[in-house]
Amino acid sequence: MALAVGIRGLTRSLLRPWVRVPGPARGRTEPAAGGGDGVRCFGSPRVLVEPDPAAGFAVMKMRNPPVNSLSLEFLTELLISLEKLESDKAFHAIILTSDCPGIFSAGLDLMEMCGRDPTHYAEYWKAVQELWLRFYLSHLVVISAINGVNAAGGCLLALSCDYRVLADNPKYAMGLNETLLGIIAPFWFKDTLVNTVGHRTAERALQLGLLFPPAEALQVGMVDKVVPEDQVLSAARSELAQWLAIPGHARQLTKSLMRKPTADRLLKERDADIQNFVRFISRDAIQKALRVYLEKLKQKKT
Ligand SMILES: CCCCC/C=C\C/C=C\CCC/C=C/C(=O)SCCNC(=O)CCNC(=O)[C@H](O)C(C)(C)COP(=O)(O)OP(=O)(O)OC[C@H]1O[C@@H](n2cnc3c(N)ncnc32)[C@H](O)[C@@H]1OP(=O)(O)O
């Protein structure tokens, strides 16, 4: 099985990043995220970046409709956006949010994990690992402005941020609900949750596949703040000020000190983790469970 799939090679073949974005932002100057100083939005088909270099941050908007499921292409574009901002000294922070109304992310793309071959599963899982590692260890301050429902892999992405603001809408539940699909949150998903909410809450949440509505998410510490829906972005921006006031090197080293042991667990056994995933997801029983779940999602409409 080819495990040595290079995400960078993939990005080169799949994308031409940093094209001016199609859709709403094309051909006009969007107000910058914080200052409206005429800085142009940029991005890729599925990720819109609204930079505010004067204020030192950018808003990264996920727009992979209908549900921001984390397909291989989408993961790749998110990584490219992150890399681009990390390598530009003008940026010290990112606000991660969604451009899809009512949905932050439906998590990993089930179509990437269902009915494909082992090589594809390995490539996909490597990209999922990479996204988590890069967001979790980013030297930038990353704040998520969660403006919709947020399941499993999407929740992991938010948990990888430094701070989480959630819109106060009872429909916007979030959690690692893998067991509801008959699958398992891998150890690094679990570790990220444990680091956020503590062992007992994580154990219960993971076994039961709990999706927490805003008040409960706040109560267990899965999010840091719940605000009215129309204030999610402004609350994230206000919070940023506190983080950006700290000397950058001190904050970054502290973040690394706190997070490196968790990331190292995966880094030490990345290939084994990929092989475990491929073996697990290729099982007939797991494939059947995913097909049934997808079917249920479709039937919900009828
Ligand atoms: C012992 C050894 C152990 C080894 C272990 C090793 C590894 C571990 C193994 C596996 C780990 C996998 C980890 C997985 C993580 C995940 O993220 S799995 C994804 C979990 N996500 C969900 O459960 C959310 C599912 N979606 C929904 O609940 C809803 O779609 C919604 C987000 C609430 C939005 O609802 P609504 O607005 O009503 O939209 P629809 O349901 O109608 O959906 C629109 C279309 O989108 C499709 N879709 C939804 N979610 C996904 C998805 N995650 N992936 C792909 N596609 C998705 C949905 O089917 C609709 O499609 P159609 O329009 O019908 O074609």
From TrEMBL:
Key enzyme of fatty acid beta-oxidation. Able to isomerize both 3-cis (3Z) and 3-trans (3E) double bonds into the 2-trans (2E) form in a range of enoyl-CoA species, with a preference for (3Z)-enoyl-CoAs over (3E)-enoyl-CoAs. The catalytic efficiency of this enzyme is not affected by the fatty acyl chain length. Keywords: Acetylation, Fatty acid metabolism, Isomerase, Lipid metabolism, Mitochondrion, Transit peptide. Coiled coil: none annotated. Its EC number is 5.3.3.8. Pathway: Lipid metabolism; fatty acid beta-oxidation. It is found in: Mitochondrion matrix. It catalyses: (3Z)-dodecenoyl-CoA = (2E)-dodecenoyl-CoA; (3Z)-octenoyl-CoA = (2E)-octenoyl-CoA; (3Z)-decenoyl-CoA = (2E)-decenoyl-CoA; (3Z)-hexenoyl-CoA = (2E)-hexenoyl-CoA. It comes from the Eukaryota. Belongs to the enoyl-CoA hydratase/isomerase family. GO terms for biological process: fatty acid beta-oxidation. GO terms for molecular function: delta(3)-delta(2)-enoyl-CoA isomerase activity. This is Enoyl-CoA delta isomerase 1, mitochondrial. It comes from Enhydra lutris kenyoni. The gene is LOC111156125. Homotrimer. The keyword Lipid metabolism applies.
